[in-house]
Amino acid sequence: MTLSETQLITMLELQDGMNSKVNPAWVAANNNWHRAIQVEGVEAIEHHGWKWWKKQECDLAQLRMELVDIWHFILSAGIQVKHGDIALAKLEMQAELNLRQKSVQFDDRYYVLAELSLLEKLDLLVGLAAARRTSLALFESLLHDCDMEWNDLFKQYVGKNVLNVFRQDHGYKAGTYIKIWDGREDNEHLVEVLEIADLDSTNVRDELYSALKARYLMVC
After folding, report:
1. What is the pTM of this model?
2. Which one of 24, 89, 125, 178 has the largest count of C-beta atoms within 10 Å of its C-beta?
3. Residue pair 220/176 in contact by the 8 Å Cβ criterion
4. Res 131: pLDDT
5. pLDDT for 118-128, tens place per residue?
6. Where are the chain's structural domains?
7. Are 205 and 187 in contact, with CB atoms under 8 Å apart?
8. Given this model, what pLDDT does residue 83 score?
9. Could you give the C-alpha distances from 125 to 44, 89, 102, 150, 152, in angstroms and in order?
């Protein structure tokens, strides 16, 4: 399943909104988003396990969470390189995805994605990030290796974004936010809201936010 244009533009707009909450002039700040990708990629390697001298289990759930975090920074870099123009960022990212690339060029070598293990792909992601580059084909391949589709990423990304904004708007920073709703954490309520939400709606962010607010006001 491919990433739809509606999903991509929604996530780009949400990322711009989140970054603007931290710094209204975030585009001009020229943050090193690739360094953030690099660090998150190394954390993903840790969750996968890489030490040949000891037994390690791959923590797939944590790996998936790292991919969602990495996607935040890929979106940010995509917007920044287009000087804040979300429409242009969407066009460039969509065009890259449409190429359906099977390999990635790095350091005068072509890496065929189908021939790489999950761990080798994470190594490649970190190397590209150190060189201030990303590859959407590589990221998509990582999703598949972690048993995720674009729809799964979209759901997790939007949910995390909306919940983070909701928390900030309701006193998270001031310490007045109530995280336990009717005996359950807010992220558990979010999972239920996501299950019944229309993820193809152009107003998915507002609809999720309203659903969370209704639950919050009812029990808190």
Report:
1. 0.85
2. 125
3. no
4. 96
5. 999 999 999 99
6. 5-148, 151-219
7. no
8. 97
9. 10, 20, 15, 18, 20
Q: Which of 151, 166, 131, 147 is nearest to 198 (CA)?
A: 151
Note the Cα 28 to chain centre separation in Å: 22
The pLDDT value recorded for residue 122 is 98
DSSP assigned state of 83: T
The three-state secondary structure class of 102 is coil
Q: Which residue has the tokens 């029990």?
A: 219
CATH T-level topology, domain 5-148: all-alpha NTP pyrophosphatase fold (1.10.4010)
The token pair at 100 is 């359906």
| pLDDT given for residue 31 in this prediction | 96
Which pLDDT score is estimated for 192? Answer: 87
Q: Cβ of 74: how many Cβ atoms within 10 Å?
A: 22
154-175 core/surface letters (b: 16 or more CB in 10 A; e: else):
bbbbbbbbbbebbeeebeeeee
pLDDT along the chain (220 residues), means of 10: 89 92 92 97 95 92 90 97 97 96 95 98 98 97 96 90 87 86 87 83 86 88
Cross-strand pairs, 109 = 106
Whether 89 contacts 81, CB under 8 Å: yes
CB 83 within 8 A of CB 27: yes
Residue 124 to residue 110: CA distance in whole angstroms: 11
Q: What is residue 199's predicted lDDT score, i.e. its pLDDT?
A: 77
